[in-house]
Design a protein that fits this description.
Length: about 90
Amino acid sequence: MNNYQQEVTRFKTLLPNRVVVNVENTNDGLWAKISSSDKKLSNCYTQADNTVELVVMINDAIFTHFEIPKNIRKNIGFYVPLSNKHLQVE
């Protein structure tokens, strides 16, 4: 395993398997608080104009929280909603 692959593996182990996203609809768009049941992730927030952008911003916030370099992010994976129900905004 080369050094780059070792770094990808190291960063993957930092990330939670699942995240919980609480979304609120505000005058400025969507605001999200991101957490995980394993307590690896707390005090992580982001916002977006729409739900499609929100998924991208959630991933960016998580990767930023764990200080994952941009050149490694493409090999880490991407958090996606499990179903449309998980991305409802009330």
